[in-house]
Amino acid sequence: MMHSAQHWLEKIRALPLPERVRLMNVCGGHERSISMAGLRKALPGQIELIPGPGCPVCVCPEQDIYQAIHLALNEDIVLLSFGDMLRVPVNVSKKAIRSLEQAKAAGADVRPIASPLEAVKIARAEPHKTVVFFVAGFETTCAPVAGMIAEGMPDNLLLLMSGRLTWPAVSMLLESEQPGFDALIAPGHVSTVMGSEEWQFVVDKHQIPAAIAGFTPESLLAATYSVLRQLIENRPFLDNCYPEVVKPNGNPKAKALLAQTLAVVDAPWRGIGVIPASGFELKPDYDSHNARLRFPDASSQAREHVGEMPPGCDCARVVLGKIKPLDCRIYGTACTPRTPVGPCMVSDEGACRIWWASGMRK
Ligand code: SF4
User: Fold this and answer.
1) How many domains in the chain?
2) Which of 123, 151, 153, 346 would suit a FRET pair with 216, their CA atoms being 20 to 30 Å apart?
């Protein structure tokens, strides 16, 4: 039986809570639901809800965005990207093109798309053109891309892969001296694909309570109650609070497609550095569709921009949950949704954008 948000709030308020307890979520959908429903204010003050690495656009490394802009401007191609990415700025002089959106305004053929299917349609409709699909996303985005690859792509469709796995970022935090959270609200979407067991390491290796949540306030509060009880009783386990959708083993077909087409590689995260085994790259069988191999000059030029971040941008620390969006010095001043300095203010899954949309001001 599904209980109401009020039911869970009452149960949480009745718990003997410690002075301070920090719960991290790693999903933009979770953060949006928490912020829009006002859960932070509704929960007892000791409970801190921390947005963590849950936005794939926010972690897309600067060099990959440079590369996409460079290809769009300098090669005779069509550049496709999910819409959020178009406005993410990179750090070049004000006179230069700073985003895919500006490249498009300058005449480059940059087109926003919503699904891999659209990429295939465009490539088929324009067979004389080289079409480069810039893929930034977590497991849930990369699984349909894997399906597209396995089905057979048109020869003129290339991929610039910037896919990432979620759990290695959580693992990196937990391996660090100060993880910054006491329990994990694990992402429902990722678990749907990869299986609930994806998060078992949080409990087994780190003895940190974890609960998988869906996207409604009720589901998030049920997961919150679960991890709080685990903490209080000192009895960490992985609780699946989204069992109607998340199953053990996840989606075996999607996982098989991922394994067939994409290799898991060490990969850079924006402003964070390389996280071992955290990226998806095309397997060698698909080299002829790999934009990095087709345009090696753009790849080497892009590498020169590693670590270049717009001045004042604190997105990396926001993504890692080390600071809250309001702690960034330029939140709401230099950086707003109309004038974004970092990706967290651009993407619908970015914590800064979500906090701004829910009315959070300094
Ligand atoms: Fe990044 Fe802007 Fe958020 Fe600061 S306010 S963390 S620069 S998106």
Assistant:
1) 1
2) 346
